[in-house]
Structures are given as C-alpha cells and as structure tokens.
Amino acid sequence: MEGEAAARPPRPFMGVKARRGASFRRDVKGDYLDVPSDPFLSAILSKQGDETLLFADKVLKCTGTGKMKRCILMITGSAIYLVDPDADVLKRRIMLAAIDKICLSKLCDNFFAVIVPSEYDCLMASTRKTEIVTVLVEASKSRSEYEIGVVFSNRFEYRAAADMVKEVRFEEVDVPEQTDIICWYTELVWTSQIHGSNLRK
C-alpha cells in the first residue's frame, strides 16, 4: 500500500494546477532565510512596522526585458517586499490590499504572477510557489473580508511596467527523458522563451 501511495501522482493544487512529486512532499517552513538574524532584512520590516513575517525566500523575478533576476521575497501580514540581494536594496513594497489576484498556469511549472491593478504586476518563479500562493491568500483573508483571487490559465496578460503589457503563454513540450515547460513572453512583435528546467534550484 505504501508503494502504491508513493507512486500515485500528487493531487493538483486547488484542484487545478499539476504538481511535481517533490512539491507535494516539501516541508513548509515559512522563513527560509532566517530573517531575524539578518540585520538588513530585519531593519526593512521594522521600519515599516511589520512584525509578522509569514514567508521569506529567494525567488526569480522577471524583468521588463524578459530576463530572470534573483531577488528576495518577503511576505508579512500586510505587504510583499522585493529586495535586491546583491545591492541590499528594497526594490518594491506591495500592500496585500492592492493585490487583485495571482495568475498561474495549469502545468507543473514554477511561475506565478502577482496582479496589482493600481501599480504594475510582478512575474516570478519559485519552487515554493504553492506555499507562497497559500500564504498570500490566507493573509488577505485574515486582515479583512477580501480574499486575493487565484486564476489558473496557460495564457494570461500582465503589466511588466506601467506602460508595458505582455502576454505569458505556457506549453508542455516533450524532450528526451523529460517533459519540459516553456514559458513564452510576448510584447508586440518580439517573443522570448524561458525553459522551466533552468528555473529549478
């Protein structure tokens, strides 16, 4: 029976999104960076009066040019923080109340887009996306009656900047000995692609 359970594919996230076995078995820790021991990160939260840290980890963030840049993502009970780990600079703070929804594909990739109508959106990738989405939804519910929406689609738009809208399209492609996920970014007449295999830690 144990062997059969191990061989059984993991249940889809929220009944929709496919998951890898490693994602299903991963321990949930919350703070993967030990923020209290980091003076710079702790100072950022202290300055904003944020005491309840719900999640912290390094993720990959898509820039306006379609490149992936590593950054630190921190989630508290009231906001999201994006920090440049190389320059020790707080790049962005997004209030949870400003987030309309989170967009993900239905495939087992690591991407998720945080949609912020009053500002601009943020496309990121993390092996802990399931935990991130769950934390954001639960945090929004605990603060008010409002709940951040979660949308699953293999094609969606996001604003990479205030004046730049891109379409993200996901495709499942069979390659030797594995199935890879390709994420296409399209802005007007140009297209770039990122292979999911390059985004795994």
From TrEMBL:
Entry-linked InterPro entries: Myosin_TH1
Residue ranges that the Swiss-Prot or TrEMBL entry lists as coiled coil: none
GO cellular component terms, semicolon-separated: myosin complex
GO molecular function, one term: cytoskeletal motor activity
Domain TH1 positions: 17-194
Identification of the protein by name: Myosin ID heavy chain-like
Species in which this protein is naturally found: Musa troglodytarum (fe'i banana)
